[in-house]
Structures are given as C-alpha cells and as structure tokens.
Amino acid sequence: MRGSRLRSLAYGFNRLLQPLDALFLRRGEAPPPLFILGPPRSGTTLLYQVVTHGLEVGYPGRPFEYLHGMPNLLCRLFPRSMRDPEPCFRSEYGSIPGRRAPTEHPGLWYRWFPEDPEQGHFVPPDGVDPSTLSAISAQLASMSLILGLPMVFKNVYLDMVAGVLARLDPPPRFLRIHRDRVEVAESLLRARRRQASPGRWWSVRPPGYRQWLGRPPWQQVTWQAYMTEELLDRQLGPCADRCMEVSYDDLCRDPRGLLDQVAGWLAADGYRRRDTAGLPARFPRARHEPEPERPQIEALLEELAGNGGTG
Question: What is the pLDDT of residues 230-244, one digit of tens each?
C-alpha cells in the first residue's frame, strides 16, 4: 500500500515537471525511432541489450526511473547515460543492472497511455487524437536530436499501443521477437510463482483480461501470451514493410549474426554500427523442467487458436 502511494506521488510530481521540460524541447527532423516488441518473457530485454550495445543509438537511461517528466532536460544533462551502455547482458524481469543501462521507462508512456480499468493497457490504433500523436512525435524526435542519435524504446506495455505508434511521424520501425508460446506461458507462470501473491495478474493486460481474473494462473498466462501475439499481428499487419521479425532461438544461437541483419535493415534510416567488443558469440538458453500444467497449456493454446482467443 505504501509503495503504491509513493508511486502515485512520484507520477504526480513528474506531471508537474512536464510544462517546465517543454522549454528544453528541440524541434527538427529526426531519424525514425525503433520499437522492440514482443510478449513478456519472449526475449525483448536481451534483444534490447544487443541492439543498444551494437548500434549507435539513444535510449531512456537510468535517470528516467526518477524524473521521467523531464526527458528533454535529462538527455541534455546526462547524455552518456542515454547512449553509452555498459556491456551487460544480464537482467531481472526487464530490469538491467548498471548506471548507464537502458530502461523500460514506463512513466514516459503513461502520460499518453494510462491504463484503462476495463481495457487494460490496450489502446486501439484510432484511440489517440491528432494533437496527442503530434506531441508524442515531437517528444521522441526531440530526444533523438538532443542526443544526436536514433532512439530505441522497449517496454512490453507498448505491445498494446503498437497501432498508435505506427501512426507517429516519422513512421517508426518495429523489431518484433517471437518465442514459442508454450515457453512464454511457462515463463510467465514461473514469474507469477515468484511473487508474494501468485494469483495476482503480472505484466501486460490485454483487453478482456478481466474475464480471466477468476481462472487458474496457468490459464491466465496462456491467454495472456496468446492474446499479446494476436494483437501484435493485427496492429502491425498494416505496416509490415516497417517491421522486422526475429526469433528468440536465433538471438541466443547467433546474436552477432542477428545484429548484422538488424543493422543492415536499419542502415538506410541512419542507424550505424558501433564496436561490438564484449558481445558474446551466443547466449545459453535457460533450461527448465516442463511445468506440470504444460499439457493443459498446449491444449488451451490450440483451443484459443480455434476460437480467436475467447476461451
């Protein structure tokens, strides 16, 4: 309860800072931003680490965890924290250690995409007015211009607003990672079991999630994994020419080769390679015993595929 109150106070304080930060906004043409998308527990954080390590890009760094209401000033005051990450490929549920580590920066996005009690984190592609789209575009461009680099963003909640992001100017690029849905569901279930309240919903909330709140956790995470992928399919379909899809298996097996592909894809948009010393030749895949619910998870995924996710 105390933690929730402190977070509420912090968000309120940062909202008060936003008008002041507008004084530091830089306007002009910027390279298209890159968004890393994929369900929670699909490898988005590792992909984020590889991209920020291997490309000359900017990203919201550690200061954003405290003063996300002042992105322009933070980029001016702490540029190294936004473009020069330590070579670290460890993380704990999306959190990367290190003073210059890239972060998920949820506060930056909540100002435009607050959670809805019924729809969860989902915002339909036409759910944001033109003035808000312009404000988002201007903010992302300003960060890029201040740092002098293209910007990369990663937050699993952005899966739920990808259709809105596709309407930004300049048109963004999307790097989407896929992982076996059974593995994603099992990883989500393990994350839930590490909580003090395993029955409590964890991470992204697709629309319709409230109908699943009374179900067992294994059913909730299976539907969560399925619906996140389905929503990404629908939102990214109209902009498939601006989307590159990669697999978690390829990322682990050959991160350097995958980085070469991503760099080649983005080269025309002004993204440049940097020295990749320290990038491992491969990443060991986590090995876990199958969860006892695996047969039920597989069956439910097949059922969801047949009925469009209605359960």
Answer: 999 999 999 999 999
* Cβ count within 10 A of residue 130: 8
Count Cβ atoms below 10 Å from residue 196 Cβ, excluding itself.
5
- How is 131-171 classified by DSSP, letter by letter? HHHHHHHHHHHHHHHHHTS-BEEE-GGGGGGHHHHTTSSSP
- In the structure encoding, which two tokens stand for residue 31, read together? 């390279």
Q: What is the CA radius of gyration of the chain?
A: 19
CA angle 214/204/222 to nearest 5° reads 55
Query: Please, which residues bridge with residue 120 across strands?
Result: 116
- Taking the C-alpha atoms of residue 56 and residue 46, their distance in angstroms, rounded to an integer, is 17
Q: With 60 as the cut, is the pLDDT of residue 3 above it?
A: no
Spatial neighbors of 291 by CB under 8 A, at least 6 apart, are: 186, 189, 190, 218, 297
Closest CA to 240 of 177, 152, 174: 174
Residue 31 is given by DSSP the state P
Exposure class string for 136-152: b at 16+ Cβ within 10 A, else e: bbbbbbbbbbbbebbbb
Residue 160: name the closest of 221, 202, 129, 205 by CA. 205
